[in-house]
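Hi everyone, sorry if this is the wrong subforum. Our group has a chain we'd like a structural model of before ordering constructs, and none of us has done structure prediction before. Sequence below.
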Amino acid sequence: MLDSYFKISERGSTVGREVRGGFVTFFTMAYIVALNPLIIGLSKDAEGKFLGGGDAPNLAAIAAMTALIAGILTILMGVVGNYPLALATGLGLNTFVAVGIASRMTWADAMGLIVLEGLIITILVLTGFRTAVFRAVPAQLKIAISVGIGLFIALIGLVDAGFVRKTASGPVPVTLGDGGTLVGWPIIVFAIGLFLMIGLMVKKVKGALLIGIATATVVAIAVESAFKIGPNFNGATGAVNPKGWGLNVPSIPSKIVGTPDFGLFGQFNLFGSFGKVSAITAILLVFTLLLSDFFDTVGTVTAIGHEAGLVDRDGNIPNNDRILLVDSLAAVAGGAGSISSNTSYIESASGVGEGARTGLASVVTGVLFLLTTFLAPLVAVIPYEAATPALVIVGFLMMTQVKSIDWDDYGIAIPAFLTIILMPFTYNISVGIGAGFVSYVVIRTIQGRRKEIHPLLFLVSGLFMIYFLSSPINAWVG
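Answer:
Right subforum, don't worry. Here is the predicted structure as tokens:
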């Protein structure tokens, strides 16, 4: 029954590969359960209140709701979309909500904007507009999006592991480790995990990424137990330890099961923002959220499809309408749950790298997220340094698609190049996609080949120009 419903054999997979892929995807993105509360849970709204309306942060409730919404939506993606794609609170979007939106209104008003954006994007799916835009993108530009995201998630892995860090000063924005030097046991754990995964992949061992994550986690627990390294940043004292662990300090938890608090659900005010800021400001905020959500997903779905070998000759995805519908409803659910917009996660590529090809992997990941609402202490066992080697490996796998781009045709090569480099350089998927679209329209027009440009790309490129120029536009309208 499983094979028939999820088309497991038809896509060249097995139940075992799907389960392993689901576990790997979960482990590479489970950090969001711990990270999202730190981003939106420690910020105050315009009335000086924390999320939920209290005078003190409620991080446990945010973590529980983050895991609950992620679990439900990821299972829905698996069952409805039959695609190996997991969803959770969008990084970047949650920071924008906390810093750029909630600071100007109440949390309920800010979450109302998220729900409103989700409803609009859902309408765009139901009317076929979002799918039409997806199909309007040239096949080779879709490949460039996939390659760019591959470099992006590899950079995420290197940054989260502390292998690449910001420079305090100097002519370059990032450097190797701490001031150009690799320091600390966490880096060694990262290296052990990375080379173990490489070795297992070379030997074609099944479950290479999962084995690497599990082994590196065991090593990390042993290292922390022996040397008491601690975190790289202490929120209570503000102390920085460049040799410390990233988000999670690995240790055997004293408590495994906890009772989740889902009290944040439903705390949103759909149109409350329009009474706190001007209508034009509220509309621009919704537009910014919508554009980022819209094209981050286009990029992610495309990249996963290419990596899994699920695209046709035109770069289109099976069940595309259903996939985009679930993703659109994720924004609504995130706002309704008061934990910011939920979106598709590129870390799903780690599960695809492990062999996942169907929605069964998403069901597995979703169930693990639901269990996390009760087993939150277990998530804290896995440090960044043990999970991020999988992102580097998957980045390599996605990079191999670059050979399919026609580099002799400048009309596609230059947009592809800008798409690829700007995603990691700006740490933003939408920026890379926007630069690729705009440059493609401009160059093809200069070449006198406007007939090759789908009419929707003219519209989308114009919207991206508004997006890129949003700051002067905001200043102009006051």
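For your construct planning: The mean pLDDT is 88. Strands lie at 87-89, 164-166, 174-176, 342-344.
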